[in-house]
Amino acid sequence: MSATDTIIALSTPPGISALAVIRLSGPDVVAYTNTLLAAPREWTPQHAVFVHLRDQGQLLDEAVATYWKGPHSFTGEDTMEISCHGNPLIAQNILQAFIHQGARPAEPGEFTQRAFLNGKLDLTQAEAVLDLIHASTERALVGAQAMKEGRLAEKLNQLRHQLIDLLAHLEAYIDFPEEDIEPETGETFLGRIDTMRQEVIALLQTAPLGRILREGITTAIVGAPNVGKSSLLNALLRESRAIVSATPGTTRDTIEAECNVRGFRLLLVDTAGQRETHDEIEAEGVRRAQSVAQRADLILHVFEAPHALTAFDAELQTSLQDRLYLPVANKVDLGRHPDHQNALAVSTRTSQGLTELEDTIEKRLIGSQRPADTGWLTINARQEAALHRAEEALGRAASGLTGGLAPELISIDLRAALNEIGQIVGLATNEDILDQLFKNFCIGK
Amino acid sequence: MFTYPKPYDVIVIGAGHAGIEAALAAARIGCETLLLTMNLDTIGQMSCNPAIGGLAKGHLVREIDALGGEMGINTDATGIQFRMLNASKGPSTRAPRAQCDKKAYQFRMKATIERQERLDLKQGSIAEILVENDRVIGVSTNLGVSYRGRTVIVTTGTFLQGLLHVGMNSVAGGRMGDQASGLSASLKNLGLDLQRLKTGTPPRLLKKSIDFSQCTIQPGDEPPPAFSFMVDHLKANPDDIFTLNEWKGGMFHVEQLPCYITYTSTETHEVIKQNLDKSPLYCGVIQGIGPRYCPSLEDKVVRFADKERHQIFLEPEGRHTDEYYVNGCSTSLPFEVQYAFIRSIPGLQNAEIMRAGYAVEYDFAPPTQLLPSLETKRVGGLFFAGQINGTSGYEEAAAQGLIAGINASLQVQSKPPLILGRHEAYIGVLIDDLVTKGTQEPYRMFTSRAEYRLLLRQDNADLRLTERGHEVGLASTERLERVRAKQASMAEVRTILTSTQHESGIGQNLAQYLKRPDYGWKDLPPQFQSVNPDVAVQVETEIKYAGYIDRELAHIEKSRQSEHQPIPAWMNYDEVKGLKFEARTKLKRIQPQTFGQAARISGINPSDIAMLRVYAKQHDRAEKDKREAAARKDQTP
Questions:
Q1: What is the DSSP secondary-structure string of A139-163?
Q2: Which of chain A's termini has less CB crowding within 10 Å, N or C?
Q3: Cross-chain CB nearest to B310 (options A177, A180, A404)
Q4: How confident is the model at residue B205 (pLDDT cuts 50, 70, 90)?
């Protein structure tokens, strides 16, 4: 049995390292890879090739790609292995670019499973594979549970249950028109779908938090030359617990340092080290700062407290308003201009305001990411993909219902949503729906 | 023992709804067929309500008809009320339902069987299934007659060890007034597992004792929706008094009778609650498991205690009888309690009970012992159909009977069996569910059981199945040609729709317009209003729901590969390492035919299936190596 879709996953542990390896398997690996190149190329199996990966023209990374032609590969299918620089952000962008092409995030253990299905592993290995498949599923669940005493699974099971119940109402409406029962339809039904959809959306919104908890928060310090960006970076490292000193000297944006701020891992992006000229003040400077900020989760915008806000800073501020953005007025020991009433006043020289800065970072990270009713629940990429499809299906069901679509079509979409949630917490069967139906309604002519 | 001189290709035991279809199908395909029944006067009896069809069941009847079965046309001929349920809902949830004249239905069916070429109808009670070398060779009756048959189809309904309950009185019987069958012992001797199920039926009342003025009238639809795709062939012959309805002047003519609706009262519920200690169901006398969708009234009152009233339908049992069926009042309470609760229902205060309601317990053979052809795995040539397989309902029984009849015939002709997929027919869903999952309660079809509900509509059963029915030699050529003509005119109408611009001049053709939820066939220009409605509904549905239909088709395509990959016969589940105990036990018991079927067994995980695949592949490779090694050896001088 050969698979029909192409799967992708990061094969190395998340986090910073010299290299990260992304693996794809399936019929479209060559096609997908070629679309990320300036021009398609011929691939010789088992030859490592240096490539520039681009997403809509923008350079993602310089990487080494190796093509393995099935069945002579680990999975037995066509496989592409991409070694890129070990920046989680880069790896994430490459993954996203492939997913955008149509690749599907792999289920836990799916590469091994495919290898196994294609007879690439022998029987004893296969037993080990089974364990592996189970172990990784368990781990996925345990990981979610660890976030908050199993509340993600609980939440998803609630949703699953609600969907089964909704379907029981719908199926009763369809299958028992002669019975004296009153299954929910119309407004109440729509209301329940909408509520569920909002809950799924709330869970989806935790994806970035899950990601930053697992992988850290990419933090850019931007601002005009000589306002104290490097000093702020050093101050943060000094104040907080520095984890790793990163390796400087590579040619691309690199993580300058990691630090732990109130339990959050901040990955500080080195922009301060860039060569600065007076051109920076000009439009080009704003563009560069924005481009750095674009790839960051958190932006610390530094300017000088004693002076009025410059046009450069004002423009930067406006363009970053909708991001997770903190204005930091440095050098407050030298005075504070009325323009900066709302900024965080710090002095990297005297350490004044640094505790407040950390307070604010913590508050903003929690506040920005955590929807009030889901607590610390977070989801991973696989769950995100499934929930995303569930949300789409619920959306179709809701708009179908509003548009007067036939009930069996609404059922198709609700079942699709149930199936997606089932991918995470266990599939529901027809029997589950019937059980609920007979529990809810007195059927029987 | 007298051995009957004439040998048969197919012997059918039981002339209920399953047996009838099995026998007629076998004879029509060309097999010498014998239909044996315990009582020639109860052929095709509607032991419970006098109605055919309804949701999913109506779909089944249309499929039976499309394949060339008898149930649809017999219902059209003898129906006394016809309705299309869910007419205001979506296209795949509409379903025809009919009240039948119970006696006319039976006697017309009996005549059809008697007049069928190659079919012999005889009375006889079967004592034993005769088997040699795990292959059926015939049957013997309790009068000491043995009939030789190459295949045998068992359709014994609720008659195997049937036990009838009214209060604490229980008597052996397959139906009130009919004796039970003792065939269970013979089946057990063959190594088949039997278990118990329960079902029930309500009391019947005398028309003149009912006050219909206190009830709501429920008339039939006009024009009456028919079941058969060949209803226009319906004609009453001069000697045929049981064909009540006719096709005349391009129309289906039925003199319809209404049903009536009333409700239980709080008093009814009180009577029942006070007498639960007299219910065999609540005293543990009844062991069999009853259906959840057809609970007894006592069950409804207990389980849905906060429901103030339960709906009751009063259904006429025929034009020439005054018995009324009290739909919704299935019960096994003692007669005196039935008398009291019936008289607490508005309209029934003076009702006379003609027959008491009762529960029946019976043996069924868990259907996981069957192949998808409905042949038993244990005995070659032995087929089961109907309630013996744990189903409920005339339509479910007839569908299985038809398939068993076809497959017994195909086996006689040394042809592969007809197995309908879950994407092709409700019949496919029904049989796959039975042989793959088994059942815990009497199995009834619901539309929600079908994954591809949108494709399995009652209106397109002919398009889906007539060709299959014709291939096996059952559906007539005329039927097939009619389907071909319908397909051709569908294509033609589709072409015109896509090539005709809408008058709005916004560059959209009519097909694109039809996709709009608020634009229907009636909004199309006048020339489309004369299109045959059967064609119009197909084209409109296909266009309107194209997005959803495409998704279902894509899904079918995706599952096709594993669905059709057979599990090799040499598969030894004990040798497959890493299978969980539960999976191993179930796989050994059910012996699925394909990897797709295996995957649908409850409790079997994708990882189990993967293990099987690897094992199969390993085995193949080992065999190949062995063969190659042997070949090399041969070449060595």
A1: HHHHHHHHHTTTHHHHHHHHHHHHH
A2: N
A3: A180
A4: very high
